Amino acid sequence: MNDSSDSHGSLLKPAKLNTAVAVELVDVNKWYGDFHVLRDINLKVLGKERIVICGPSGSGKSTMIRCINRLEEHQVGRIVIDGVELTADLKKIDEVRREVGMVFQHFNLFPHLTVLENCTLAPIWVRKMPKKEAEEVALHYLSRVKIPEQANKYPGQLSGGQQQRVAIARALCMNPKIMLFDEPTSALDPEMVKEVLDTMVELAHDGMTMLVVTHEMGFARQVADRIVFMDEGQIVEANIPGEFFAHPQHERTKLFLSQILH
Amino acid sequence: MTMAEGDLAVTELAFVRHTTIAPRPPPAMMTGALGWLRANLLSSPFNIAITILIGLLMAWAIPEIVKFLIIDAVWAGHDREACLESVQHRAIGACWPFVWERLPYFIYGSYPISERWRVDIFFVMLAVGVVWLLWLNAPRRDLGALYFFLILPVTSFILLTGWSAIGLRPVDTVLWGGVLVTIVVAAVGIVCSLPLGILLALGRRSRMPTVRLLSVIFIEFVRGVPLVTVLFMASVMLPLFIPEQWSPDKLVRALVGIALFASAYMAEVVRAGLQAIPKGQYEGAMAVGLRYAQMMRLVVLPQALKVTIPNIVNTYIGLFKDTTLVFIVGIFDLLRTIEVARIDPKWATPVTSTTGYAVAAIFYLVFCYGMSRYARAMEARLTRGDRR
C-alpha cells in the first residue's frame, strides 16, 4: 500500500500508513428481514489510510460504513475498530462512537442549537470537557472548515455546503481517530460540492483515517489510497486508484465506470 | 410574418441587462388598514357573508353581556332584597354584592378563617414560582426551577396541611375549597403530567417489549376510562382494598387520579412530537457518542416538545377545566363552592345562579386564555430561534 509510483497511487502523497489496523471487517453479513444486504464483507483499513467506497445505489456501501459505528447492527462476522470489537455491549459501542466521527448525506445537524453548540455538545457531555475549552476547540475546527464567523447562527440559516462543513467540524471536535463519510456531497447544490470536497481533501492531507462513500470520482482519484467497489452487498473489486480506473478487472466495475465516467 | 418582425424576434433572443431595476413599494391596495380589510375580511363573496354574519352576532351578544355584567348590575346590598326586581329596578343584571360577600368562600372554601393567611402565602409563593419559571429572561432560572419543583411543593404542603411542631394548626383537606383546591389540583396535574407523559411516551417507543407493553397498557387503559370513573375508583374502590389508617387522604387520591389521567393523554401528545423528529437527528446524536438519555434530553426532546407546545397547552387547558370533576367525590373546588353558594336562601334571586356561573366562567377563561397566550408567545420565541 506504500506504493509511490506516480501512475498508480493517488495524486496525493501517499500517507505514511500506520501498520496498526484501524478498522477490520471479517466475514460480515447482514440481513434486513430476508434481504441479504451485506455478504461476506472482508476489509482491513490501516491507520491513516483513505478508502473510497463506491458502487451503484442499493449495493450496501452505506450500510457497511454505518455498521462501523453501529448505526446498523451486523448479524454475522466480526467488526473490530481500533482494537475494540463491536458487539451488543453498550460500553463497547460508546467507546467506538467516541473514536469514530461520521458525516451524513443530510448533515443531521441539530436545528435547535447554534453552530457552536452543535460542535460543543458532544465534547461537553461525552468527553466531559469544560464548556470554555470545548468552545475553543469548536472555534478551532470551525476555522479549519473556514466558517468561524457563523458560530452563533443556527444551522437553518446556513447554505447546504456550510452546513456540511459544520457537520465535519462537529465530528472533528470529538477528536476522532477515524472519520466516516456517507455520501457527504450528494444532497448539495452543485456549486457547493467543491467547498465540502476541499475540506475533506485537507483532512486527508492531515492524515485522518477516512472511509468515504461517494460518487465523486475526482475526489477518489485525488485522495484515495484504495478504492473499494461494491455491488449487491459484496466487495467486487478493491485497488489503488490508478489501477482501479485504468484497468478495472471485474465486468461490473467496468460497467459502473463506463456509466459514471463520461 | 414579415421579414422585419422576424429580424426583431431574432434580435430579442439575445438579451443583456444594462440597468438594474430598483425595488419599488407595493401598490397601496396591498398595505394599510384598507389593504388588510380587503385581504382578510372581504376577499370573496363567501368571506364577505361570514364577516357580516359574525359582525351581526357580535353586535347582538356583546351589548347583552355588557348590559348584564355592568349596566344593569347591582353593585351594593346586604341580601337578596337588593337583587330582586322592584319598581325602581326593572331590569336586573349581575348581583355583585352576592359575589362580594361569598368571595372568601369561593377562594378558600371552608378553610378556617384564622388560618387563611397561610393560603394567601401559598398563592404568593406559587405566583412567584410561576413567574420565575415562565419568564424566560428571569435571573437565575436554575434556582427558580429548584424553588418551583422542590422548595415550593414541600413548603406549600407544610403550610397548607399544617405542622403542629412549628405551631401551624393542622387543617384537614376536607375543609379546603374554592380557588385553593382548583389551583392545587390543576398545578399538581400540570406539573406531574408532563414528566410522566414523557416517560410513558418514551416507554411506548422503547425497544424493550416489556417496557413498551406496560406503557401501552397504562395509556390505553387510562384513556379508555372516563375521568369520573378514575376519580370514583380512587375515592370509593381504593378504601375497600386498603385498611383505613393506610388509606391516603381523599384529596391526595383525587390528585393522583388526575395526574395519572392527564399523563396518559400527555404521553400521546409527546409521542406525536417524537414521531415528528427525523431519524437523522437520532443518528446524528448517536454518531457523536451521546447515550440514549443524553440524546433524548439534549437533542430529541427539545425539538419534539417544541413542535408539541400547542398540543401540550391544549391538554393543560383541558386538564384545568377537568379539575371541576373532583366535586363528584365530594371535594369543593371553585365551581362546587359557587354551586353551594348560589342556592343559599339568603341570596336566592333569579340572577344569583347566572352571576355565580359568570364568575366561574370569567375565572376559567382568564386562566385558560392566559395559558394559551403564553404558549403562543413561547412558540413565536422558539421559532425565531431556529428558522429553517
Shape of chain B: globular
The major beta sheet of chain A can be summarized as: 6 strands, mixed
Compute the CA-based radius of gyration of chain A: 18 Å
| Ends distance of chain A | 28 Å
**Helicity of chain A, as a percent range:** 25-40%
Content-based structural category of chain B: mainly alpha
What's the structural domain tally of chain B?
3
The string of secondary-structure elements of chain B, in order, is HHHHHHHHHHHHEHH
How would you describe the oligomerization state of the chains in this entry? Answer: heterodimer
Number of helical regions of chain A: 9
Mean pLDDT of chain A: 90
Radius of gyration of chain B: 29 Å
Number of helices of chain B: 14
The helix/strand class of chain A is alpha/beta
Give the helices and strands of chain A as they follow along the chain. Answer: EEEHEEHEHHHEHEHEEHH
* Largest interface by Cβ-Cβ < 8 Å: A-B, 27 and 21 residues
End-to-end span of chain B in angstroms? 52 Å
Unreliable stretches of chain B (pLDDT < 50, length at least 5) are 1-6
CATH class placement of the largest domain in chain B: Mainly Alpha
Strand order of the largest sheet of chain A: 6-7-8-3-9-10
DSSP helix fraction of chain B: 55-70%
Describe the structure.
The complex is a heterodimer of chains A (about 260) and B (about 400). Chain A is built from 9 helices and 10 strands. Chain A has helices spanning about 60-70, 90-100, 115-125, 130-145, 160-170, 195-205, 215-225, 240-245, 250-260, and strands at about 20-30, 35-45, 50-55, 75-80, 85, 100-105, 180, 210-215, 225-230, 235-240. Mean pLDDT of chain A is about 90; it is low at about 1-10. The two termini of chain B are about 50 Å apart. In chain B, helix 7 (about 180-205) packs across helix 10 (about 250-275) and helix 9 (about 225-240) packs across helix 10. The model of chain B is unreliable at about 1-5 (pLDDT under 50). Chain B contains 14 helices and 1 strand. Chain B folds into 3 domains: about 40-70; about 95-110 and about 170-385, MetI-like fold; about 120-165. The longest helix of chain B has about 35 residues, at about 350-385. The interface of A and B includes residues 102, 106, 112 and 154 of A.
